[in-house]
């Protein structure tokens, strides 16, 4: 079948479909539910189209409006962007199907959820497709503002408090990033990543820019010790929003940091380029252990899941010290597997928590009261997501941990291997703490509210996604290699077509 | 004699997959069945286990006649999920498929009218799926995956009753198995980075590495053995097993005889024979410590069993002791000891499941949970206690019950390897077995029954107990007699064990 | 002292001042203002560094960036103020509660 649309069309659609849908949902709130799901389906279709195009024709550069660098805004898609776009599309569809069920009980929140969420989605897609530092800044800001507004959606005192703190943190993070952009522009006269990659040289400008940008993005990614804002924000937002924040939003700033590192800074050499990966690895290891222990101590389900996110973010940073040695960049592929698996699994877990919350009216873990009988689908979703988070086979999380361990063992980095294993054991501890209480009855029997099936199934299907990711290597492995994102800077890949 | 495998015939991929599916699919369907659909559930369970038994029988016949069975699924570049049926797999497969059928029958009778049966049987089937996956694993990665699945699917069975005690037992079970799983994973990845392959090979695949990586290999061996040793309940990793006794009797049968403990012991067999190769392992000097651990576990389990009044706990400690016979047979290093260890994999399963079925019958029919409550129970439940007695004689190692064959070969194997201490361990353990089992028989057959049993249930018409509860132990008791009496006939566990030992020691 | 350096130092000063305010001030309005001071510092830096070589024509691209940045900052300020008001009407407070967010 001849393709009616090419890769450039799909890429453009990925930015414009959610943007137009956001406007439409804002203008016609009554139709928002089905407009939102329709947009989610279209975005998934466009993502699959783009993935197909990348797999057959290699990386893609689109000069939107025909301007081209250095003046215009270029879109850029390679394996790294495509993998994250795909995860975003799947999680986004799952949450979009879930949301109408959840917000049926909270109509005033539903009015704002759709425009904000679709705007968030625009920012995510735009961020994964941009190859221009300033454009990335704008996307980062749109992302931060819509995420903070979504956090405040519940309107509760804790929710507003957490959202306010999140907003300030997020603004500070983007400001630091913008400062870095200003320095780089001053130094090298361009904000196009490909051109910048060719011109950048070791020196005070590059070093300062790296430091302020990394600091800003770490703040947004909530790597320990910058994680303080995350548990209250992710724990108090409405369940579908928590799922989006944990699964998608923090991945975006991580992606940006990774992109900058791979394409601009990792090749610079010098003391900082040698020390920074080690530092990030150490912070990541600390985050894995500290976040897991905190999760184990929580009594409330949503806070437990939020601390689990703090731990899982840590794994992503273990890639920095382990990368750059092996063929095929096994460590970065491991990180990508972990990021994708965490996205799907954590979304499933937060949506399950939302179901339990709606069912029982609380999320105290010790009072789950035989949830395993009463909400079997939801509990299954929670456990399957948990299996991927623990890194038990067969799941995306398992493949990620396997690759990370392989990388650590090959290089003799025993410390990191131990952290990876210990993190898995602790994760099993907190996941099964919840499951154990779901088998026991409480003293006072509780009557539950009905939970719509669409809410249970969307969580379950996302969890299945995290499991199936473990079997995706035959196509995901080549996809991650498109444009050699972990090996070559964008500048050297060039526009292959 | 047994024909060698002929690589010219294309491997058959369907049978291994069907063996998995025969418990996986019924299990998944059962989850969605409403509680009251007793007959649909029963039909699915029985059909699944019968089909599995037939398929395993077909593969027994096929492997005997040079057919190969293998299936694979790519998981990572260079690493596949591989199912491959070898004689060793079939030893474990036929044990678990056969006992699954009986345990299912028993569980149907045992759980009659109790809540959450669909959930129970669903996980029960998944658990067996994981076990046959372990049995058919063609490389260490596949083994690891099914081994972890086994952990996950048994957890809901352990906590099935939903009491606080069950939740604690589940927690302890998980704490042990998850930490062990992490060590197993560490050892596996480490080995992969050194060897570049994980495919199970007769006589192992690490011989080339011994010179350069001796200490790494020793460390990997320790990691892997601890990883599987928790499930095999090697001392000091055994403490989860007695606590898991809070689960219903069919689950105990499953844990002790069909799946979990057996998978652990089977894992040790695989690691020693097909990962390291027993000769390489002996050269690395790791088999001797393993034999000592096994010997200590044998004696420790027996001594602890002496002091348990709770019947199921006494049986649990007896399992701790008996499973290490398998490990001992592997670690002595020699063809005869190998035969003894491998054949005990099957023998212990058949005998121990008899004892657990009987203990379950006593609890369900008369409310008896303690040894001290068993006075005169032989008169009230003669058939159950007959089966129990046969199982006990097997455990002690009296001829002609199957347990005798195991101990005979283990003892001979020790002598063949020039070791005398295994004989003393075996003799000591047999004496201890007698010391903790014979008083039970004495009470049951020769003491006066009490005026009333703790909690008697009436099954109508002066019946001893429900026939679904009585049939399985009688079958397994008869089986443990038969495989002992006719040990030298073709297709008995002993003959298969000989075939496997021959390939391990005499193939070029 | 070249004009570039003056702009740069002034920009950095503003950023430092704003950062201090953001971290130290408790009242949310002051925090929002502090964020705006940081933004102004960055914009100053961007515009000031636009003349890349002495005597050369100033580069228009940073001016465009500053313009975009101002729009973003205005939107962010509006959202922050709205959220602050909502927080005040929900709790009566105009400062952030420290971690007492369990139960």
Report on this structure:
The complex is a heterotrimer of chains A (497), B (508) and C (103). Chain A is mainly alpha-helical. Chain A has helices at 7-27, 32-57, 79-103, 107-129, 133-151, 157-188, 193-199, 204-221, 230-236, 239-265, 270-297, 301-317, 319-322, 330-360, 371-374, 376-390, 396-410, 414-439, 453-468, 473-481, 490-493, and strands at 60-63, 74-77. Chain B has a domain at 334-508. Chain B is built from 20 helices and 2 strands. A two-stranded antiparallel sheet of chain B has the order 1-2. Chain C has one domain (3-91): Helix Hairpins, CATH 1.10.287.3510. The chains are: A mainly alpha (497), B mainly alpha (508), C mainly alpha (103). Chain A binds chain C through residues 134, 137-138, 141, 145, 148-149, 152, 155-158, 160-165, 167-168, 171-172, 175, 178-179, 181-182, 185-186, 189, 191, 228, 231-232, 235-236, 298-300, 303, and chain C through 15, 19, 22, 28, 31, 35, 38-39, 42, 45-46, 49, 52, 59, 61-62, 65, 68-69, 72, 75-76, 79-80, 83-84, 86-87, 90-91, 96-97, 99, 101-103.
Main sheet characteristics of chain B: 2 strands, antiparallel
**Order of neighbouring strands in the sheet with most strands of chain B:** 1-2
Which spans of chain C of ≥5 residues are poorly predicted at pLDDT below 50? none
Order of helices and strands of chain C: HHH
Which CATH class of chain C? Answer: Mainly Alpha
Poorly predicted regions of chain B: 1-8
The portion of residues assigned to helices of chain B is over 70%
Number of domains in the coordinates of chain C? 1
Supply the number of helical segments of chain C: 3
Give the rounded overall mean pLDDT of chain C. Answer: 86
Helices and strands of chain C: which structural class?
A: mainly alpha
Helix content of chain C: over 70%
Terminal Cα span of chain B: 17 Å
In CATH terms, what is the fold-level topology of chain C? Helix Hairpins
